Amino acid sequence: MFAIPRSSGVQLHVTSLPGGRLGAAAYEWVDWLQAAGQSWWQVLPLGPPDRHRSPYKAASAFASWRGFLSDSSARVSPQEVAEFRERHAYWIGGWEAFAGPRAVADQVRFEREWSALRSYAAQRGVRIIGDVPIYVAPRGADHRAHPELFRDGLLAGAPPDAFTDKGQLWGNPIYDWPALRRRGYRWWVQRLARTFDLFDLARIDHFRGFVAYWATPAGAPDARGGRWVRGPGGAPFAATARALDLPPTGLPLIAEDLGVITPPVERLRDALGLPGMVVLQFAFDPDDPDGPHRPENHRPDQVLYTGTHDNDTLRGWWESIPGARRGEARAALSAAGIDEPEPWWALTRLALESPARLCMLQAQDLLGLGAEARMNFPGRTGGSWRWGLAPGQLGEREAARLREMTVEAGRADG
């Protein structure tokens, strides 16, 4: 398993920084994380978002969004362009054909800004976690450049679950896994190589899709008419490890193993040496007394999230849950000896004290923001991906409070 020390971090997408770009606000955010005793900054996918602002339907699985640039007119030399083309020959041509003549220069600019920011963060003990959507956007650069790698007539999604009783019809094209296998999974090898270039660690979204994925006929009104289809298992990861000369287990990945998780999914995760996920907001269901998300069932080889980008904020969640669930949460806090005046800070302390080796928090929760600050509403096509920090909104007081909790939980030095 990839070595993750006992530590914690905060999830905040680049678009949620003040101004929504790299530059001064990003460096100030890294400084805040250092002051707060945090070792990780998690972002959402960095590709060009769709018209609803979703980074999970990015126009490219490889290219980064020029909207993140702090200086979109910075000079780029012909030599820089040529070197970038050589290093990224597999995908840059397809992206340029899709995005236009300035596409390569924009990627050079992003690499320049992102590399400087990562170096600055590393010097301050902050590493960056990325997010890899399992699927690509319909009619995006990857779909157009490699139509032979995708199936016709089927769309990706998820069956009915806790988020929506109609399931989630994402609309992404579904991979033709036999076609990928015949090509040595090269597309996935290149994609993960790009991921490891950009991040210290990355979350594979919808990991269970590698074991079996939900396929819905094109034209269906929702995802209820879909069915499970067998996936490729660990073959894409093994091909990546061989091609990149990495150990066969312990790639720097987190398996997002939420949803309908079966023993084969767990076996694949464990065989690959990947940490799975638990979510504190799923912990207190009175009808699921033995659930894996309950604090007493957490394990060191997991990443605990108080909530993901698909969840409400802790305050919004707390104010909306039934009394029985709130009672379960209060009982857990009492059993842990936690007595904080605000429930969201109490739950943050509970999360930090978990045996899970890595604990990830949401920036909104450190401000006690309600449902108005939620990042995504699964199953909706609009109204998401809009929340952002105001300049100075997270300040020294919140940093000091979080650092104290983090040190007490053994996740940072004093």
| CA-based gyration radius | 21 Å
Helix share, percent: 25-40%
Largest β sheet strand count, sense and barrel closure: 8 strands, parallel
Q: Classify the secondary structure makeup into a structural class.
A: alpha/beta
Number of strands: 12
N-to-C span: 27 Å
Query: Helix count?
Result: 13
- Would you tell me the overall average pLDDT? 95
Q: What share of residues are in beta strands? A: 5-15%
What string gives the helices and strands in order?
EHEHHHEHEEHHEEEHEHEEHHHEH
Q: In what order do the strands lie side by side in the largest sheet?
A: 9-6-3-2-1-12-11-10
Low-confidence stretches: none
Overview of this protein structure:
The structure is a single chain. The chain is an alpha/beta fold. The protein has helices spanning about 25-35, 80-85, 90-100, 105-125, 140-145, 175-180, 185-200, 235-245, 265-270, 315-320, 325-335, 345-350, 395-410, and strands spanning about 5-10, 40, 125-130, 150-160, 170-175, 200-205, 210-215, 225-230, 255, 275-280, 300-305, 360. The strands form two sheets. The chain has an eight-stranded parallel beta sheet, with helices on one face. A four-stranded antiparallel beta sheet has the order 5-4-7-8. β1 (about 5-10), α1 (about 25-35) and β2 (about 40) form a beta-alpha-beta unit. The radius of gyration is 21 Å and the shape is globular. The two termini are about 25 Å apart.
